[in-house]
Amino acid sequence: MKLLASLTLAAVVSTLSVPAMAQFQKPEDAIKYRKAALTVMAAHFGRIGAMASDKAPFDAKIAAENAAIVEDMSKLPWAGFGAGTDKGETRAKPEIWTDGAKFKKGSEDMMAAVSALNAAAKTGNLDNLKKAFGESAKTCKACHDAFRKE
Amino acid sequence: MKLLASLTLAAVVSTLSVPAMAQFQKPEDAIKYRKAALTVMAAHFGRIGAMASDKAPFDAKIAAENAAIVEDMSKLPWAGFGAGTDKGETRAKPEIWTDGAKFKKGSEDMMAAVSALNAAAKTGNLDNLKKAFGESAKTCKACHDAFRKE
Hints:
Two copies of one chain form a homodimer. Chain A contains six helices and no strands. Chain A is mostly helical. Chain A has helices spanning 2-22, 27-52, 60-74, 95-98, 100-122, 126-147.
């Protein structure tokens, strides 16, 4: 039964990781992709942050446009973290693959937080935006602290 | 009148370029951003290309998901081509800034073509997808030929 359980687990893991990897020809393509998706997300998140921290004038329309892009982008990077993408031009820590459940939970927390940020931005209220931005930023930091090398 | 025309033109150019640049702290941030947006777009466009060229099995749902992302991404890179972003880690040719009207037309052609690609993907018909992919790829190539160094 132990062997069967191992084989089943291997099949599940394989099923989970193959589709993601199959999207990229080489591991370095996956790494480049996930970094690019996070770069685009960070740029738009940063524009909301400038308003949320009173460093830029609050413009509800611009905030909402950026928050919508952040939510769209938040779904993309994860496909780039498939098996075999732990080496190369990356600051990804091995824990992403050795503690996949925690990493997955972190990604889900972030996606939920920026979805709430998008909803908050649509209200056009700066206080709502500030609160939701702070909650989102916490989820970024949590994953960076746990899963990204300095 | 010539002076007035010049001043008016300067004001217009300034109005056009300031908002784009104001989104980025430094020119290198804008360059990194536009490359990242194009990298993400290319990855998803490539997955449609694999189906359109019969190198990957056609899956209407996956094609539609990727085409929607391509259309979303197609709107983003242009803000990263503001004044002062012609130097640095970039293969952008000076013509982007000396022939801005042609570059803008190229960007609009691409956005229209990938919007049509997204509509074609939604039909679930491989022939529609192949035709729209081909039209989109032409617009990529036109800009790369004219505005990107080898």
